[in-house]
């Protein structure tokens, strides 16, 4: 992952101290409907997530990122973790090698509605594309409107419905590195 700072957030790798946050972030009520595989009823499940989130920390672009507050705000202490961003290969439907790179996000319910995930995901996406990756995709349940809004706010294009990933129908978003469109850049 790429460590970053934004206006309001520090973006850092996961560590052993993040178990409680990992549990909390998976209490978002939308998970049961939109990502049932991520529902986290107990500490053992949270620990399995955390072990996965601690992988890829040394990878130049892929990885799992904690977004935490840089400063105290509205009774929340500096350093409070609010959400997570993931950048990883996306599993193609039907199996086979995962080649496309996916960005995704999850946020603790008590920290939603402040633009934190948009700020974090936008910084991560810019950094990944800036590091030379040609294209990043995001997929969401067709009715997951808060997630669609995040994708569009960080400049991803709404491509349309697809069954290309996760053996299910999702709404696909994509952003390409500047100059990586279907036609050569003008000028
Ligand atoms: C998807 C998810 C992360 C979106 O959370 P969110 O709080 O809507 O996203 P943001 O943190 O970017 O906040 C955006 C909201 O904050 C508001 N906001 C307030 N202050 C803001 C600021 N300074 N800057 C930007 N937005 C701000 C925006 O207007 C927007 O509110 P709106 O939806 O009422 O228009 C959250 O719903 C979630 O965790 N869902 C469960 C997991 C999930 O579905 N993940 C995606 C799988 S595909």
From TrEMBL:
Keywords: Transferase
Protein's name according to its UniProt entry: Protein N-acetyltransferase, RimJ/RimL family
GO terms, molecular function: acyltransferase activity, transferring groups other than amino-acyl groups
Highest taxon of the lineage: Bacteria
InterPro entries noted in UniProt: Acyl_CoA_acyltransferase (IPR016181), GNAT_dom (IPR000182), N-acetyltransferase (IPR051531)
Domain N-acetyltransferase: 9-177
């Amino acid at each position: 992952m790429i460590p970053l700072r934004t206006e309001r957030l520090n973006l850092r790798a996961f560590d052993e101290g993040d178990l409680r946050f990992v549990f909390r972030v998976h209490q978002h009520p939308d998970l049961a409907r939109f990502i049932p595989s991520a529902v986290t009823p107990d500490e053992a499940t949270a620990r399995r997530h955390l072990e996965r989130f601690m992988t890829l920390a040394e990878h130049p672009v892929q990885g799992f990122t904690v977004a935490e507050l840089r400063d105290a705000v509205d009774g929340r202490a500096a350093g409070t973790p609010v959400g997570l961003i993931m950048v990883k290969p996306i599993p193609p439907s039907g199996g086979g090698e995962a080649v496309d790179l996916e960005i995704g996000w999850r946020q603790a319910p008590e920290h939603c509605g402040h633009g934190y995930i948009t700020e974090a995901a936008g910084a991560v996406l810019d950094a990944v594309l800036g590091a030379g990756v040609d294209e990043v995709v995001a997929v969401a349940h067709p009715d997951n409107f808060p997630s669609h809004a995040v994708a569009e706010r960080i400049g991803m294009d709404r491509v349309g419905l697809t069954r290309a990933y996760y053996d299910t129908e999702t709404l696909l978003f994509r952003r390409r590195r500047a100059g990586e469109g279907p036609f050569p850049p003008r000028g």
